[in-house]
Amino acid sequence: MENFSKNFLTQQFNDYFVKNNQFETIELPVIQPASLFLEFASNQFIRNMIRFRDNGGRSLCLRPDFTIPVSQYFIQSNIPQARYFYHGNTFQQVTRSHDEGTDLVEKYAYGIEMYTHEKDIANQEADLIKAALNALCYLGFQQNDLTIHIVDISFLQHMIECLMVSQATKRHLNYVIKKHGSYAAIPQDTKEKLNDCNDQETAAYAQKLLHSLKNDTVITGSRTIDDIRQRLTEKALFAVTPIAKDIWRFMDEIAALDSGIIDCIETLVEIQKRYVDIVNLDNFMTSINQYIKAFKMHNLLVDNICFKAESLSTFQYYDMFAFEIYYRNNPHCLSRGGRYDSLLFYMQSKKYVSACGFSLFSDAILADLPIVLSEKQGKG
């Protein structure tokens, strides 16, 4: 059997992406400005970054991720679109559980990033998943053995947008989730505090604001009538305990979703019936059906696609869509990727760019690939 190694994977992926699909290979420095990552990473990820200062006092780090520096490279190149292939090490420090020491974790990853003007979002994202699957199949994996998990905090954000509450309340719910990094990490007492907002305090707040409303004019700085109404709605929502509890119960059910895409739709229909007074999922369901159509057009096995509502990444830049690929029921992720249009905006790109990509993890692939090929040889 082939002697599988990092060099083997490098040759195979270089053949697939560069020779066969005309991606441009780029190499990025291992040492990066720490500030490049701080705005887009969770607190836990920042703690795990290996940071230091140079002689001039600049804060630097060993490269913890590829997507952000690749995006910066694209912006600085000042070109309309690009398709990059990269590979190399990423570095983190992880605290040991048995003492207060830390270990250096060095991982080797391959990946692509694509910057285009594509407008058909569902089609592009189905194409992205297909590209990751094809790369794995090029090594010898079989598509019917690969499970795709569409996993991202944006799923919960879509659900929040479906709530029939004020924009202020939606912002507040998003803030709570982002603050804790994932829905599962929100302490129960945080929800209880929101639910148990003091009714007397809220009534006094409302009375004060309503007293200030005079002839629909601007009052007290930048507070307009609409702004006051939004603030009042937000306060009132969490003062009325039954409504607040319904919202948290709805979010609990959504966060627990972990099923095949067809089952997910059926579950959402049932959830909609239970919470018809606070949420309308019609637009979201239309969007999901568009994805299913796109998946089928790309010959993706819909039965192998699962939705999981939890966040997959300690990075905040995935804003619309993200996925992970696993071999059968094995726990280690072979590939992870998604869309991050907003990252380019925040990094001061002066043009609309559709940005998406994925990474392929050598340790996981090298653990599963010998099993895959030995089974194929046995069948042969």
Structural overview:
The chain has 380 residues and is α+β, with helices and mostly antiparallel strands. The chain has helices at residues 6-19, 35-38, 43-48, 67-77, 121-139, 153-162, 167-180, 188-195, 199-212, 225-239, 241-255, 261-274, 282-297, 341-346, 362-379; strands at 24-25, 31-33, 51-53, 59-62, 82-95, 102-116, 146-151, 258-260, 305-308, 322-327, 335-339, 354-361. Helix 5 (121-139) crosses helix 13 (282-297) and helix 6 (153-162) runs antiparallel to helix 7 (167-180). The model is unreliable at 214-222 (pLDDT under 50).
Topology:
Layout: H1 6-19, E1 24-25, E2 31-33, H2 35-38, H3 43-48, E3 51-53, E4 59-62, H4 67-77, E5 82-95, E6 102-116, H5 121-139, E7 146-151, H6 153-162, H7 167-180, H8 188-195, H9 199-212, H10 225-239, H11 241-255, E8 258-260, H12 261-274, H13 282-297, E9 305-308, E10 322-327, E11 335-339, H14 341-346, E12 354-361, H15 362-379
Parallel strand pairs: 1-5, 7-9
Antiparallel strand pairs: 2-4, 3-4, 5-6, 6-12, 7-10, 8-9, 10-11, 11-12
